[in-house]
């Protein structure tokens, strides 16, 4: 979570195409910044089989040569029997071009016309670099909130708070028809019926602390095995800021989102938890006036120190937030008998716990 | 089948005395220092650092330098001169400076990702898959004429995958060319792009019917970086994987590695070709099996994937279960195994919602570790299932050749043997080698041993071991230039023997006699004898360097490898755990009733001292 930062997004086409903007242009989330022609779908027709001919005879029966355009239902090949009644014709099932005629397999490949693929800017900002034929880099001064897990792709809309506090459940009653197309922020947990209502209303995105795994399974209609997401078609984008279960959203995150309620934001649920980690994100562009004044690079930090605020990210104290009160340098034996690096955390109620360092994360901001 | 891990040509590197090796993994680059002391090679120091293939560094050598710097700091040996590795050892007259050679393996950036294609799925399709897996690749998909997909579906799939390399096979030499030409047409129509960068052509190896070479070259020669090599299935009854595997390694270096950030520099440092990590592990497994003339299974259970290696009757096989792992893929183990299969190993009851949420939380925060005993027991239960499923996968691919006509005798007809049966015979298995954090770093060694025994259900007499600090990749690449050094370090510093498991085959009523046993220790210690009952686990102390002669006299319904009721005497080795007598029966069956299951698992755990004693251990 960062109150003010500069985000640079590489927006790249999957195949070479045309870039539609120039360096310095301002773009909005729905601006088309580049486009490409995706090769059309290929259809294969076994002409040799259909004509009862040998594969090497196919070229002589073809009406169209390789590279020629055909319309749907055009005759692309016919045989030449002595008795006309036995004549067989092969028609094109699609509009396209003849891609290949094989004298080995007797197959003809037809390719549909290319499809236009448009690449959108996704975030509001300005174009800093053009990567010819491939895409652009768009830069935005913004507030950035990263979640821990998400599903669904890129979207944008107005940020709106549906609950009053970070520990409040987001229920179906909190969702109003006016929230269609908006990014709705909940508290500690989203219920299954809330997810259903969000889809029905056309909410752009939900941002909440946690949910149950069983509700995710119901939403996706399968059990997610590996956290590589972002392409799900579930009707909205969902971002969890804390994890699975009922976990209040970190107070700082909730306060920051509340502060920006009413502003436009871009969100992506794309998550990839492997080498090259991608976490879901919420980007709130700063207004141009304030951006010029206060965008500043974040100071690099050197590991964890006493006094840092941390969140426990593993049972038995999962979700609790406290302050680091000691950092013993030596390895300590924990209940499992493993010897690991630990730290001591003091919670708001003055209780203390010794926790493996691997099981906490620093709350930044 | 002539499958074997392709070991590059050996060079005379006999005079090496100081070796530094790295393994550039997806997340961590691990360095080890090997020094020759009193004529013996030993691993002396290790260091590690985050891998730096990806942004913001985008240069793999940064992570290598950081890992080597840690080795420098710990060993007091000056290895680096700025950003160069000092060679040879003793450079500048300083005995504590320099190394004789630097070698490395790599799986950074997701390793080598391949797509393979064959004519018939169960024949050339499987041969191509075995070939790519043996070369250390992750096989993203296997395409075949009869894979059930329509042509446009195949083409869409080829286009969307973006592999590092494609292996196209199909047809025996002199056989039909139709199917392989058809596959070549589909690949050409898809015009696949390589994963790393858009500016170069995708490497494609053609290793199919030699009569189709010309046609395939016409179709793919201008659309891909085509390399033609010997057919991997020249005859129906012969598999010839080595030439294609060697080509995969060559192209891995020339194309894939050359595109990955920093690898050109890394290759210039290395004194031997950089090898994909799993291929290097395969080298060392094969070397061990050859040296000791044994059958073995090796497993490396990681965060994302589980690799299984086997050598049976001299035939090497490797499989990757791409989504069975203990962190990134932990949720997929749950999805594939099902909750009931995981919970059967847990010595307490827990509600489904809690455990599902916990597993998902581990998936999204993969670097966390179990803090409580409950959590450790759940993770080790999941590991059992990941290991079990990965072995099932391995057995299905490590097979004899399918489609081969066999001469049959009358007894074969009664045996109902078919071509393509699995090569994995648990009764002939001599050694299991476990690797990966959950096995190598389990708080108690007996936990590693029982995880593997429960998952694999070894039969008869089987020795078990673990890799101490995951240095098999380093030793695998080292074995390509100095097998003596690799073997000495492997035996002295890498492999930790756990002991021997003796598991009678058969089932009976709990408490009734399964077998009588006599253990005679070679150390001269008083022999131990007793009765192993059904449903019983017994642990007998037998130290790391100790051996014993064990005689098992099974009851008439039980087999120990020589037939039902036949006594068996074998010489066994001890280890960090000892001698495990497993009377739980084979196949292993756990009580279905929840209370009885918890009681049984708790009893077994206590019998071998699996966990510190608590209410439910």
Mind explaining what this structure looks like?
- The complex is a heterodimer of chains A (365) and B (617).
- Chain A has six helices and 29 strands.
- Chain A is mainly beta and 365 residues long.
- Chain A folds into three domains: 70 residues, OB fold (Dihydrolipoamide Acetyltransferase, E2P), CATH 2.40.50; 132 residues, Glucose Oxidase, domain 1 (3-Layer(bba) Sandwich), CATH 3.50.30; 54 residues, SH3 type barrels, CATH 2.30.30.
- The longest helix of chain A is centred in the middle third of the chain and has 10 residues.
- The mean pLDDT of chain A is 91.
- With 617 residues, chain B is of the alpha/beta class.
- Chain B folds into four domains: 82 residues, Nucleotidyltransferase, domain 5, CATH 3.30.420.40; 158 residues, Rossmann fold (3-Layer(aba) Sandwich); 232 residues, no CATH class; 83 residues, no CATH class.
- In chain B, the strands form five sheets. Chain B has an eight-stranded mixed beta sheet with strand order 15-14-13-16-17-18-24-21, with helices on both faces.
- In chain B, β10, α5 and β11 form a beta-alpha-beta unit.
- In chain B, α9 packs across α12 and α12 packs across α15.
- The longest helix of chain B has 25 residues.
- Chain B starts with 17 loop residues before the first strand and ends in a 9-residue tail after the last helix.
- Chains A and B meet through β5, β10 and α4 of A and α3, α4, α9, α11 and α12 of B.
Layout of secondary structure:
The complex is a heterodimer of chains A (365) and B (617).
Chain A: E1 2-12, E2 18-19, E3 26-27, E4 32-38, E5 42-46, H1 47-51, H2 58-61, E6 69-70, E7 75-78, E8 89-91, E9 96-101, E10 107-111, E11 115-120, E12 125-131, E13 135-146, E14 149-151, E15 154-161, E16 169-170, E17 183-185, E18 189-190, H3 192-201, E19 205-211, H4 213-220, E20 237-244, H5 251-259, E21 264-268, E22 281-285, H6 288-294, E23 309-312, E24 321-326, E25 332-333, E26 339-340, E27 342-347, E28 352-356, E29 360-362
Parallel strand pairs in A: 15-17, 16-18, 17-19, 19-20
Antiparallel strand pairs in A: 1-13, 2-4, 3-12, 4-11, 5-10, 6-9, 7-8, 9-10, 12-13, 13-22, 14-20, 15-21, 21-22, 23-24, 23-29, 24-27, 25-26, 27-28
Chain B: E1 18-24, E2 28-37, E3 40-50, H1 60-75, E4 80-81, E5 84-85, E6 101-106, E7 112-118, H2 121-134, E8 137-144, H3 151-161, E9 165-168, H4 178-190, E10 203-206, H5 213-220, E11 225-228, H6 242-259, H7 263-269, E12 275-276, H8 277-292, E13 296-301, E14 306-312, E15 315-321, H9 330-337, H10 339-343, H11 352-364, H12 373-397, H13 410-415, E16 431-435, H14 437-440, H15 445-456, E17 460-467, H16 472-479, H17 483-494, E18 495-503, E19 513-521, E20 528-533, E21 537-540, E22 547-554, E23 568-573, E24 578-582, H18 594-608
Parallel strand pairs in B: 1-6, 6-12, 7-8, 7-9, 9-10, 10-11, 13-16, 16-17, 18-24
Antiparallel strand pairs in B: 1-2, 2-3, 4-5, 13-14, 14-15, 17-18, 19-20, 19-22, 21-24, 22-23
Helix pairs in contact in B: 3-4, 4-5, 8-16, 9-12, 12-15, 16-17
